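Suppose you are handed only these lines of text.
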Amino acid sequence: MKADTTAERPAGEPLLTVESARVGYQTDGRFQTAVQDVSFDIYPGENIMLLGPSGCGKSTLLKTIAGFIEPSGGTVRISGRTDLAPGPDRAVVFQEFDQLFPWHTVEGNLTYPLRVNGSSRQEAKRLAGEYLELMGLVHAAGRYPHQLSGGMKQRVAIARAMALRPLMLLMDEPFGALDAQTRSRLQRELKDVAARNDVTILFVTHSIQEAVFVGHRVVVLTPPPSTVREVVDVSGLDDPTSPEFVAALRRLRSLLTEDGEEPDDMAFE
Ligand SMILES: Nc1ncnc2c1ncn2[C@@H]1O[C@H](COP(=O)(O)OP(=O)(O)OP(=O)(O)O)[C@@H](O)[C@H]1O
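From them, the structure of the protein bound to adenosine-5'-triphosphate can be written out as follows.
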């Protein structure tokens, strides 16, 4: 564990490589750069957290990796491929509670995308059962989204994404709209389930506490047009009261406050 040093690359081949990526938007007839020059890798089984000031392009990067936006420069490679059309190999979980299909039950929310992606009825039901079990949702399989709490909806969204058995899970502030208690419970559940099932995650967050607790490495971005300020190793930090955890929080906070940014969870000291 190296909470306060720049992260070393894990051994082996990366699953995802982002190399000198430049991404922007055409606004009022001209190109506005959001992400200037960003490079980082994700290795299989890693939880990589994207942290940075508001508007620095975290969601833009996640959408680029999902294949929703094309980079205007650099390369994004997944398992050696640069063809990034959106697909079930990169399942996305958003912050909003309305990402579920309201007309499907919880089980239907899992089986429907599986069927669309080629699973037989039987296989879809089997996988849905497996991932509902994994996320503690078996008792809610027959309920509709409007009958669920925000935390349960996010759990269903995670189960649905994992059931597709993607190469990686892309999560854009999935717990950002939850109350503090539910948020910390889901952070723990996600961390445990991901570790036990060798899931690879790219996770956008505003919270340094979340970055340290859930992540293995944290990619800290500069203000826009963004580059990578530093990649910080936070692997193995499970106890928020440990000196190493607190040191990692301080390190990330100082990297963010170099630019005067106030992280949304300042109550860690
Ligand atoms: N569809 C769009 N069209 C034009 N500009 C956009 C679009 N989406 C994002 N932007 C701009 O790109 C920049 C980066 O936005 P993005 O949402 O990726 O940042 P972020 O780091 O995720 O922000 P936050 O932390 O506030 O959620 C911002 O200046 C934003 O206004």
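What can we learn from it? Confidence is low (pLDDT under 50) at residues 1-5. The radius of gyration is 18 Å.
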